[in-house]
């Protein structure tokens, strides 16, 4: 399956993607995680992306599309993938369509996670992620690690993301509404959108998502 996950910052895309990708046996491709890995390895791409990410703005399309394309062309993505955080505006969605068309591939679904803004703010405020791998995600109340400040998966140190400050979150939400939400209409026109509520327990949301994807097939 080829799936795109959309939803506001803090909706739980990364959290759900980990379970869905495992259930569906497809790789989880998160452009946010790819950028954060580049930042921690201090690559040129990481240096460029950091200033945009810290301000809550989108990294320029040209580098983002090239990075996503490169990842989607890896052998493990041949039979499907779950995209998390990409595409994030209409021009990225058009670039993805072009790429899929040249490969003679199609998207199966766009899963839209709906969460009210006050819940998103709570989820982001308490989020802690792992220094070794930003896909290891915890929450100070909703998903506590067994040992305070230590990642359950790899023992790495947990910290708060730079872009999770209150001011940056406000910018990220605005960017989501103005630049990312329009892709929902773009994909609705292709009949691909399935919307679910992302409220409630993580496992209940995963079950809802799996059900919706089955129905959408
Ligand atoms: P990215 O990393 O994609 O951030 P985002 O879209 O803002 O999403 P988040 O990672 O904040 O949230 P999430 O929905 O994954 O929630 P999570 O599962 O962590 O992008 C960051 C930046 O990178 C962008 O601002 C941009 O600069 C750049 N970028 C990335 N892609 C780009 C692109 N395509 N183009 C240009 N720039 C790009 O959950 C949040 C918290 O809630 C966690 O603590 C979790 O434990 C908790 N939680 C999850 N589910 C539940 C639940 N059901 N109940 C209670 N708590 C829950
Ligand atoms: Zn870890």
UniProtKB/TrEMBL annotation:
Region described as NMP: 30-59
Record carries keyword ATP-binding: yes
Domain Adenylate kinase active site lid: 127-163
Binding-site positions, AMP: 31, 36, 57-59, 85-88, 92, 161, 172
Catalysed conversion reaction: AMP + ATP = 2 ADP
Listed GO CC annotations: cytoplasm
Protein name per the record: Adenylate kinase
Name of the encoding gene: adk
